[in-house]
Write a structure and sequence with these properties.
The protein has about 120 residues and is mostly helical. The protein is elongated and about 60 Å long. It is about 50% helix and about 10% strand. It has a two-stranded parallel ribbon. Helix 3 links the parallel strand 1 and strand 2.
Length: about 120
């Protein structure tokens, strides 16, 4: 239903894939870049993602960047663009401490952040 709505109303599409993100995204980007070489409209591929702070997600982000970087050098232009999203109340740049020194429990965090206002 979602895929149909995207196609009909927005001219977009939805791809559902299973597997390690760095492999799945590399395969999709590779296919797009191969279409470019056969004259179809894709001259640059940018993959957008939200910046993550959790260890596993950050490691995945690095793996994706490496796989896209190697594709970009081998086949043309492929890049990862990381943007800070809205998944947290504060940007890490706005915190009065380093992210690695986050006060615990939450009450301690709240007290520090509120005292800085």
């Amino acid at each position: 239903a979602l895929q149909g709505a995207l196609r009909n109303h927005l001219g977009s599409d939805l791809l559902v894939a299973l597997g390690p993100p760095e492999e799945v995204l590399a395969a999709v980007v590779s296919e797009l870049l191969d279409q470019k070489s056969s004259g179809i409209a894709c001259s640059q591929v940018r993959v957008l993602c939200q910046k993550e702070v959790a260890f596993e997600e950050a490691a995945c982000e690095v793996a994706i960047a490496k796989s896209l970087d190697s594709l970009g050098h081998a086949k043309g232009c492929a890049s990862l663009e990381v943007v800070w999203g809205t998944q947290t109340l504060y940007s890490p740049d706005d915190l009065p401490f380093e992210v690695g020194r986050l006060p615990e429990p939450f009450t301690a965090f709240r007290n520090v952040v509120e005292s800085e206002k």
